[in-house]
């Protein structure tokens, strides 16, 4: 069972028990988080695709870590002009462990009835 969720302008394919990194979201370590923008859901047999999102599916997770990624260097250079600029950047992220993927409420389906015509 997996789902594709959208968070921070990016899309992530997640499964139950998986730990994945998203753009920093507010919250303490150990607190619950819910992703409601589910774009795709598969239970192994059936595939549901949202247009644009699935309203009845949500992904529940737990915040495992609030940290910064490894440093990257941004280096600007213009030849023959004695221009050099070096700058570092560390992007903050949140590590989330997926606990459950499923319906965000109870789904009520209408029973199919056979109408007899005379």
From TrEMBL:
<protein>
    <recommendedName>
        <fullName>Large ribosomal subunit protein bL21</fullName>
    </recommendedName>
</protein>
<dbReference type="GO" id="GO:0006412">
    <property type="term" value="P:translation"/>
</dbReference>
<comment type="similarity">
    <text>Belongs to the bacterial ribosomal protein bL21 family.</text>
</comment>
<keyword id="KW-0694">RNA-binding</keyword>
<comment type="function">
    <text>This protein binds to 23S rRNA in the presence of protein L20.</text>
</comment>
<dbReference type="GO" id="GO:0003735">
    <property type="term" value="F:structural constituent of ribosome"/>
</dbReference>
<dbReference type="InterPro" id="IPR018258">
    <property type="entry name" value="Ribosomal_bL21_CS"/>
</dbReference>
<dbReference type="GO" id="GO:0005737">
    <property type="term" value="C:cytoplasm"/>
</dbReference>
<comment type="subunit">
    <text>Part of the 50S ribosomal subunit. Contacts protein L20.</text>
</comment>
<dbReference type="GO" id="GO:1990904">
    <property type="term" value="C:ribonucleoprotein complex"/>
</dbReference>
<dbReference type="GO" id="GO:0019843">
    <property type="term" value="F:rRNA binding"/>
</dbReference>
<dbReference type="Pfam" id="PF00829">
    <property type="entry name" value="Ribosomal_L21p"/>
</dbReference>
<dbReference type="GO" id="GO:0005840">
    <property type="term" value="C:ribosome"/>
</dbReference>
<dbReference type="InterPro" id="IPR028909">
    <property type="entry name" value="bL21-like"/>
</dbReference>
<keyword id="KW-0687">Ribonucleoprotein</keyword>
<keyword id="KW-0699">rRNA-binding</keyword>
<dbReference type="InterPro" id="IPR001787">
    <property type="entry name" value="Ribosomal_bL21"/>
</dbReference>
<dbReference type="InterPro" id="IPR036164">
    <property type="entry name" value="bL21-like_sf"/>
</dbReference>
<keyword id="KW-0689">Ribosomal protein</keyword>
